[in-house]
Amino acid sequence: ETGVTQTPRHLVMGMTNKKSLKCEQHLGHNAMYWYKQSAKKPLELMFVYNFKEQTENNSVPSRFSPECPNSSHLFLHLHTLQPEDSALYLCASSQEREGQETQYFGPGTRLLVL
Amino acid sequence: GQNIDQPTEMTATEGAIVQINCTYQTSGFNGLFWYQQHAGEAPTFLSYNVLDGLEEKGRFSSFLSRSKGYSYLLLKELQMKDSASYLCAVVDSNYQLIWGAGTKLIIKP
């Protein structure tokens, strides 16, 4: 495997379910990101991890809970989501947590909350 | 506030040239990215400009004018596979990436 991978690619869940999104990067990068992408809206940065430490949480509701066990893996734990949370969730990585570093994205998880 | 403006959608013909504009108002500037995103796929890096001028990379070129807060992506000899969304993103003074909503480019035969 190369690049950034995400599983699952598609997820349908009810508002009472608990699920987790997984991201893995094979690029040797030190920074990883979760983004939310909704139709016709800019990418919304949710969380940033640099060397496994969470450095940013952009006012994300507590029903989203990130976990970064090591520099290569990133999880997003979901519980009691709302229909408005339906979106494409993208994971990205970069060599360092500097804005001018190129970010490499995974293919995303398309989430539908019923 | 910080703002990135780009057209929502553009249509062009196969073999032609298209220019996708991006204007920005941000707190500081440390570079501008263009990414391409095919439907249902990951955004992929196209270009990074930090100095004024034109950077050419094959059929794609990116231009930056910092004094005007303006950039464009120029696509030449359009191919059907160029149908995608093109995302503009600016690095602000805090080295945060500020994203535009993207421009959906439709290529017609």
Mean pLDDT of chain A: 92
- β-strand amount of chain A: over 45%
Overall outline of chain A = globular
User: What is the number of helices of chain B?
Assistant: 0
Shape of chain B: globular
Q: pLDDT below 50 for ≥5 consecutive residues: which ranges of chain B? A: none
Whole-angstrom Rg of chain A: 13 Å
Q: Describe the biggest sheet of chain A?
A: 7 strands, mixed
* SS elements, strand count of chain B: 11
Summary?
The complex is a heterodimer of chains A (114) and B (109). Chain A is 0% helix and 56% strand. Chain A is built from no helices and eleven strands.
Write the layout of secondary structure elements.
The complex is a heterodimer of chains A (114) and B (109).
Chain A (H helix, E strand, L loop, with lengths): L3 E4 L2 E4 L4 E8 L5 E7 L6 E7 L2 E5 L6 E7 L2 E7 L7 E8 L9 E2 L3 E5 L1
Parallel strand pairs in A: 2-11
Antiparallel strand pairs in A: 1-3, 3-8, 4-5, 4-9, 5-6, 7-8, 9-10, 9-11
Chain B lengths: L2 E3 L3 E5 L4 E8 L6 E6 L6 E6 L3 E5 L2 E6 L4 E6 L8 E8 L5 E3 L3 E6 L1
Parallel strand pairs in B: 2-11
Antiparallel strand pairs in B: 1-3, 3-8, 4-5, 4-9, 6-7, 7-8, 9-10, 9-11
Question: Mind explaining what this structure looks like?
Answer:
The complex is a heterodimer of chains A (114) and B (109). Chain A is mostly beta strands and 114 residues long. Chain A has no helices and 11 strands. Chain B has strands at residues 3-5, 9-13, 18-25, 32-37, 44-49, 53-57, 60-65, 70-75, 84-91, 97-99, 103-108. Chain B is globular and about 40 Å long. The N and C termini of chain B lie far apart (40 Å). The model of chain B has no long low-confidence stretch (mean pLDDT 95).
